[in-house]
């Protein structure tokens, strides 16, 4: 019978099973310990090893053997301390002695579902393919002017409206000659409307993001609004906001989100009498594109003191939100009741709209909103959206691409003659390969009034290390090596909020220039080309047929 130790070793995993293998150069390493100190997953550790050295010394060299004990860096073979490939070790190594290498033949998913729990991860889906948005090209070009000069010469107004737009015959105005006057006798309810920049920062909560990351984003959008004159807004995500921010004048740049967990909403409701400004809008979240039909989740690793105080919950507990509002019978009833109650809370001054995940039922929700005079918009989150925590199977195998889902909803509005009344907000994989302006412009021409981004701004503003090869992607367990999605002070102090704010401003200024370069050749400088699908083509006939646009090859 074999010894017990050998039987135990037989059930251990080799590093070949792991997604990333650490390549360590003994000859370059000076044993400073920086790499092992910064690894957020504790995937590498310092240890000692006995080396047998054969040497020949003296005038008549005679080979001799010497055993030496040396310090080395080893990679852990524990499945709970796997290397995520974030390469933070390479970032701090002074001699380029260490780096993770992708192992394309790994069998990680086979072993990660330990304890009977499916693999849960953060970040994006494992889909390296080209998205539909990147297959679209802008093919309607004006021949009357030089587009390169046009974008720089004309004055542009790249703005959109968040809120329901009444048809002309329902507006409470009277026209006498060239004068347009408000009809005070008309008692028609006029929905509140906000003028915003068409690319907004999507819902990432205080809790999902670190305090320094959230502070950087808040400072960035404030600078864009007050210095650059760009009305960029940001959604708070579920979980409430710091009381100081709720009572400040800066709340007007934020969309407050309420989700089915109602986390943080006690503080928000109590703060309403002390608010000096109204929020930009209220978003009611019913679904997320990366995990449709599944509720939100902030894992216990990230529920530390600050988050527990804001959300009014104990420390160190998982915070799951049900997939639907647990107090409602159906999506139709939930939308109607939540929208009206939120309008009442703010005295009918703030637009209220729902957010749903991309699915075959999106049109059903849309048609209920069309008949609801209080519905301000519909936000649709496609399958390529990022998330703080989701089961791997949800991220990779569930959902609907945003391009076709948005197009279906917009064409449905066109058939009803409501395309200029109810705005559609598109999200999910926008700028997945870095082409933010092109992807946003394509969605606008497919029918979106606004576009929401999340993971892109994390990568562009803070240098998120995650990618489509499942690199890093530990947003859910609070071990973010950049300090973006963690509540651990040792990690989030690595992130400078001033640098984040600076990069947010740079990203939006560059985005503005690129959008002008796209819109100028189409002759659109004062209004967005919403639904202008004759200006785009696809390089795939199946995509062109599905989106009802032209095919160009």
Describe the structure.
- By secondary structure, this protein is α/β, with parallel strands linked by helices.
- The chain folds into two domains: 14-117, Alpha-Beta Plaits (2-Layer Sandwich), CATH 3.30.70; 140-163 and 192-202 and 213-225 and 232-548, Alpha-Beta Barrel (TIM Barrel), CATH 3.20.20.
- 29% of the residues lie in helices and 19% in strands.
- The chain contains 18 helices and 23 strands.
- It has an eight-stranded parallel beta sheet with strand order 11-21-20-18-17-14-13-12. Strands 6-22-23 form a three-stranded mixed beta sheet, with helices on one face. A two-stranded antiparallel sheet has the order 1-4.
- The longest helix is centred in the last third of the chain and has 23 residues, at 497-519.
- The chain starts with a helix and ends with a strand.
- The model has no long low-confidence stretch (mean pLDDT 88).
